[in-house]
Structure formats: C-alpha cells, structure tokens
Design brief:
Blueprint (H helix, E strand, L loop, with lengths): L1 H23 L14 H28 L1 H11 L1 H29 L3 H7 L3 H10 L5
C-alpha cells in the first residue's frame, strides 16, 4: 500500500525543490513563471501526508494485538520510523512557512543576495526530509 503514496511524496519534494531553486535565480535571469501562493504549503502538506502512509501500515500491523491507539503511540514514540516522521513533519512545516515568507519578501525586495541567503536553510531541510525515511 505504501507504493501508492510514493509518487505523491516525490511530487511534493519536486515542487519544493523547484520552488527553492526558482527563488535562487536573480530576477533579471528569471523567466516569467507564475505559480499560486498556496503551492508551497500544499506541497509540504503532501509530503507530510504521503510520508505517514508507511507509518500507518506499521500501525495497522500491530492494531490487531494491542489496539489502534496503543499501536499508534508505540510506533510514533518508540520506533525509529515515528521519530523520522516527526522530523519530516517539522521540516515540512518549516518549508511551508519559509515558502510563504520568501514569496512575500520577494515582492518587496528584489535583491538577489537576500533571498539567496534566506534559502540557505531550506536546502538542507529538503535534503534531510528526502533522506530520513531511508536512513537507519
């Protein structure tokens, strides 16, 4: 069942990576591409929701023995997968907030230096969220 969520997960990552790379390009070199303001937070929500599907599969495996709530609590707080998912959610929220802030700042400031420095944090966050589900 988890394979259904992987395309959505990668589409969300691709949107976030594309938006962060697009913000690094100076305005004089940037093509006229308009995307809605809600796309960054929506991509972050897609990443968080799609990353939960493998966790849900583990929870459903243990549900028969100890119940849904107890298995949810055990997986989220005692398993490494739960800790990784918590990091993915936190970094997705950070990416959503930064995508909104950068979009608002770019309307006011057109200096390439500011927004290239402002996007130095999301790149490692994006890298971590792509690597956390596969690390041990």
């Amino acid at each position: 069942m988890y394979w259904i969520s992987e395309p959505f997960l990668y589409v969300g990552y691709a949107l976030l990576a594309g938006m962060s790379l697009f913000a690094l390009v100076p305005n004089t070199m940037k093509p006229r591409i308009n995307y809605p303001a809600w796309l960054g937070p929506a991509a972050s929500a897609i990443v968080a929701a799609s990353a939960f599907i493998p966790i849900l599969q583990i929870i459903m495996f243990f549900k028969e023995d100890i119940g849904f709530y107890q298995s949810f609590k055990a997986v989220m707080f005692n398993f490494k997968e739960g800790e990784r998912y918590a990091w993915i959610v936190a970094l997705s929220l950070l990416a959503a907030v930064l995508s909104v802030l950068v979009r608002r700042r770019l309307r006011r400031l057109s200096a390439g230096c500011f927004h290239s420095l402002f996007w130095e944090l999301p790149r490692p966050c994006l890298h971590l969220t792509t690597q956390l589900p596969y690390s041990e």
